[in-house]
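SAMPLE LOG
Freezer: B-3
Tube label: C17
Construct: single chain, 235 aa
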Amino acid sequence: MENVVKNYRLFHEKATLIENILGKSKKEKFAALKGISLEIRKGEKVGIIGSNGSGKTTLLKIIAGITTLNSGKLLTEGKIVSLIDLSAGFHPELTGEENIYINALLAGMDRSEMKSKIKEIIKYADIGKFIDAPLYTYSSGMKLRLGFAIAVAANPDIIILDEEVSAGDEDFQRKSMKKIDEFVREGKTLLVVSHWMDFLKKHCERIIWLDKGKMVADGGMRILNRYQSGGKNSG
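STRUCTURE (predicted):
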C-alpha cells in the first residue's frame, strides 16, 4: 500500500431538486485516510488502533476490496476474507442455505468447493431449522453465525476482522475465538481493528496507530501500551 487516500462526501441537509441540478447541494469532503503507506508481510498479525473516526475500518475495507480508494496504490496477494459486517452480502428474502451459496462465491469458493463444504457450513453455523427459513426471520446473532461459518470455510490466506466477532452469545464467542486461534497457529495473515485490547495483546505482534486518517505509529506492542496510557499522537 502506497500513499492511499480515501475521501467521503458528507451531506448535512437534503438538497432540493434545483440545488442538485445546479451542483449546489450542501456537502462536505471528509478525508478518512490521508496518504497511508505500509507493507504487511505474509503471516504477520497486525492490530490497527485509534479513536472512532480515525480511519481504521476504512483502511481494512480498502484492503478487503469492499471500498475503493481515491488515489494511491494497493497490491494484495492471496485469498482475503473479511469478517467486517458479516451479513452485508445477505439477501433478506432468501433462505439461509441459499445465502450460503451466494456468499460462498463472493468469499472466493468455486462451485465444487462450495458443494463439498455446504454441510460443514450449516453444521458450524448451528442455527437449526432456520437454515431453511428466509433471512428476514433471523436474529442478529443467527446472521452473525451464518456469516462467520461461510467466511472461515473459505480457508483464506488473509483474515480481516473487527470487534463484531466478540458479539453474539458465549457459545459463538468460544467457537469463533477457537477458529481464529487455529488460523494464527497455521501462520495466516491476520489484520484486526479493535478496541478490544486483550485480544490485540494475545494475537498481534505489530500495532498500527491511526489518528484522523494519518498514521501516528507503526511497530511493536509498546505502541499499544503507549496508546492505552494516553500517549501523545506523535512519532
